[in-house]
Amino acid sequence: MDLLLDRCIAAGARLAQPGEFTLRAFLNNKIDLIQAESVAAIIEASTHEAARCAINSLQGHFSSRIEELVSLLINLRMLIEATLDFPEEEIDNLQTLHIDEKLAQIYALLEQIFLAARQGNLLQEGIRIVLTGAPNVGKSSLLNQLVQEEAAIVTEIPGTTRDTIQRTISLAGMPIHIIDTAGLRETQDVVEQKGIERTYAAIRDANMVLRLIDSGQQPQSAAENNPAQHAIPAGKAQITVFNKIDLVGENPRTEDQEGHSAIYLSAKTGAGIELLRSKILQIAGWQFNQAGEGVFMARQRHLEALSQTKKHLENAQRFTEGAYQLELLAEELRLAQNVLSSITGQFTADDLLGEIFSHFCIGK
Fold this sequence. Notes:
Blueprint: H1 2-10, H2 20-27, H3 33-44, H4 48-58, H5 61-85, H6 99-125, E1 127-133, H7 139-147, E2 165-171, E3 174-180, H8 190-205, E4 208-214, H9 219-224, H10 228-231, E5 237-243, E6 253-257, E7 260-264, H11 273-284, H12 300-318, H13 326-344, H14 350-357
C-alpha cells in the first residue's frame, strides 16, 4: 500500500489535508459548521450515547434550533430598526409591538438550547475527576471499584502510588475520566515528590475533585492532616469521601451541608459506591434520564457563544426597562445575532476555521 501511495504521489496526486473533505463540503454550502464538527465528534465519541448525540447534530437538529433563534432575532430587529429608521412613518407604538414579550420568548428558547447543548457537551467530552488525599486513604481502591478492574496497585504501604493513573468509564452514558494521584504529604523521596507535583497539576485541570479521608480519623485531625483540602482551588467542584466505613461499622450515606457534599462509603466492599455515582452526575449537571435523547453535540466554543448571546440578551432586556433605549437595544440584538451565526459558520473568521479543521483526521 505504501508503494502504491508513493506511485500516486509521483504521478501528481497529493495527500489530503486534515478535514479537507469536510471543509470542502462546508465551503460549498453542503453542510454548516456545526454539521462539519459533528463528523469529527462521531469519530471521537467514546460512548454509544455520545455517538447518537453527534449524529443528531450531523442531521441538523442543533443547526435548526440555532436558525430558529436567529430568525426570531431578525424579526425583532426588523421592528426596532424600522422604528429607528422611519420615525415619521405611522409604525405601531412600542407597546403594541410587544417587544418585551418577544425578547422574553427569545431568551427562554436560548436557555432551552443552552441546556441541551451543555448536556451534549458532557456526553461528548465528559468530565475529569481527580482522586486526592493523604497517603493510604484508599484512592487506588476507589479507582479500582469505580472502573471495575485492578487499574492501580493497592497495598497498605503509604506512597504506593507515585504517578497519576487515568481510566475512563461511562456513567449514564457520560464519559468520566478518573485520575488516581499520589498521596499528598511531606516527603524526601525525589520520585514521590515528582508524583505529588503531578497531583497538584491534575487538581488544577480537573472538573471535579474527590477528596478522600479515612473515616476512622477524628474530624479535626482529618482536616489538619489532609493537605488536599488546601490544594483544591476555590470554586472547584468537589466531594468529600469518607472511606473505610467498614472498619468503623458505619452505614453508607450522603450528607449535604451549605453546598458541600460528603459521601460515606467503603472502597473495599463497594458499599456506598452507587451514592457516589449519583452525586457525581448531580454535581456535573446531568439532567436527562435517557442519555442522548433530545440533546446534540456541542463543543466548548458553542457553549461560550451561547453564553455571550445570553449576556447580550440580558443587556437588551435592561434597555427595555422604563424608557426604551432603542439604539442600544438594537445594537445588543445585532451582536447577539452575530455571535449565534458564528456557531453555524455564517460569520466565522478564517483563523477559527483553520483551528477547527486542523483537529480532523487526515482527509475526513
